[in-house]
Structure formats: structure tokens, C-alpha cells
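Bumping my old thread because nobody answered last time. Still need a sequence for this structure:
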């Protein structure tokens, strides 16, 4: 098995096991860390195990290899195709693209004190599941304008040899300045400096983001299917 196969399960059983809640063949991140879960296999036992980790009326997100099929006890709230992309190293990161302005915005590291602003920004831009302790999963970087957090990106899931770039988002009124690329480049530099490979997930309909990721050297590995489920 490749480390990026069943990636959530692999993260929760290897490098991020300290953030895991477990029941039989299912694992989930602690709810305050991330609303993401996985099971060993998408079988009846897998879904029954998952039910042991979610309260009635609760929701959870899964990254499936095939579109979700109806299961007892679960209702589909949302489902979208979600490519998994991996940095292939062919497009070496440059210190400064020729189109970059002479004065770069300051990049700041974000932490617990910034969590309320990070939650506000992700709620506005919806880059994917983000909770009040998601920042604990890795380094998160941001750009501020007049003291306000306007863009960020960081590290989320970690599996052997790989770290996910996640929560890439910019306030709508501050797009067009290259903030996403600047932040992603720095996050990627840090991952590569540890001898790891960056990867990410993106909605298939987010054409603009995919184009950016391809320019940065990412290539599609597999097509996953995000399913947000509610336990009935």
C-alpha cells in the first residue's frame, strides 16, 4: 500500500495517532482538531465502526475511493469529487518568480492565539474542514493586512514521507496579489527541507486552484470522493 492510499487512516494510525479516536476498524480526528474520519475498509463493518465514533445527528467527512453509496444509519449531506495531487519535483521552487513584486508581504506563523481568526477565514472561504485545534496538526502561515488575517496556508495530514498542504485561502477582497502562491511556496519549502513530499486535496470544480497547484509542480495522483455524512 502506498502511504497516500487511505490517507486519513494512515495518518491516524502512524504520524498523527495522538490525535485519533478509535473504535474497532474506524478512526477519526478528535472533533476539536478536525471533522475527518476513515475506516480500514469501506465495508459494513467499517461503517458500523464509524457509527461508534459519531453521536446521533453528528457529521463526519470521509475521503472515499469511489462515490458514496447509501448505508444504514447514514445520510449524505454533501459529496464532491476530490483529486489528490502530489508534488513531483519537476517544477523546482524558485526564490522569486519574475512577476513577483519587489516588496513581499510579511509571512507570520499562526498559533492558538490566532485560532478565532483562522476559523473566521476558513468559514468565509471554505477551503475544507477546519476546527479550533486544526492548527496543532502542523505549521500554519498567514499574511496580515492592517492587522487583519487575510490569507493563510498550512500543514494538515502527515503520513510516512509525506505532509499535506491544506487550508489555502484568501479573503475575497484580497485575491489577485499572489498570497496563496507565496504562502504555499513557503509551506512547501519547509516540508521539502525535512525530506518529505508535499501533497494536497482539492475540489475537482475548483479549476483556478488546480491551475495554481499545477504551476507549482503538483500532479494528480488519484481521484477521491469527499463525502460528508450525518449519523441518523
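Sorry it took so long. Here it is:
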Amino acid at each position: 500500500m502506498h502511504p497516500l492510499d487511505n490517507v486519513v487512516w494512515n495518518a491516524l494510525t502512524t504520524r498523527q495517532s495522538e490525535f485519533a479516536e478509535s473504535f474497532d476498524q474506524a478512526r477519526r480526528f478528535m472533533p476539536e482538531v478536525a471533522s475527518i474520519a476513515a475506516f480500514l475498509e469501506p465495508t459494513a463493518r467499517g461503517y458500523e465502526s464509524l457509527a461508534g465514533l459519531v453521536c446521533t445527528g453528528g457529521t463526519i467527512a470521509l475521503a472515499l475511493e469511489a462515490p458514496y453509496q447509501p448505508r444504514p444509519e447514514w445520510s449524505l449531506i454533501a459529496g464532491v469529487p476530490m483529486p489528490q495531487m502530489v508534488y513531483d519535483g519537476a517544477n523546482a521552487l524558485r526564490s522569486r518568480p519574475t512577476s513577483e513584486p519587489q516588496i513581499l508581504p510579511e509571512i507570520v506563523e499562526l498559533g492558538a492565539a490566532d485560532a478565532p481568526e483562522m476559523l473566521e477565514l476558513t468559514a468565509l472561504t471554505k477551503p475544507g474542514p477546519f476546527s479550533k485545534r486544526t492548527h496543532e496538526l502542523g505549521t500554519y502561515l498567514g499574511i496580515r493586512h492592517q492587522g487583519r488575517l487575510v490569507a493563510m496556508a498550512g500543514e494538515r495530514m502527515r503520513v510516512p514521507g509525506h505532509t499535506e498542504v491544506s487550508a489555502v485561502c484568501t479573503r475575497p477582497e484580497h485575491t489577485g496579489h499572489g498570497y496563496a502562491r507565496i504562502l504555499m511556496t513557503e509551506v512547501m519549502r519547509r516540508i521539502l527541507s525535512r525530506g518529505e513530499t508535499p501533497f494536497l486535496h482539492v475540489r475537482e470544480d475548483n479549476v483556478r486552484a488546480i491551475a495554481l497547484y499545477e504551476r507549482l509542480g503538483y500532479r494528480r495522483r488519484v481521484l477521491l470522493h469527499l463525502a460528508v455524512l450525518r449519523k441518523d
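The first helix runs from residue 7 to 13. Let me know if any region looks off to you.
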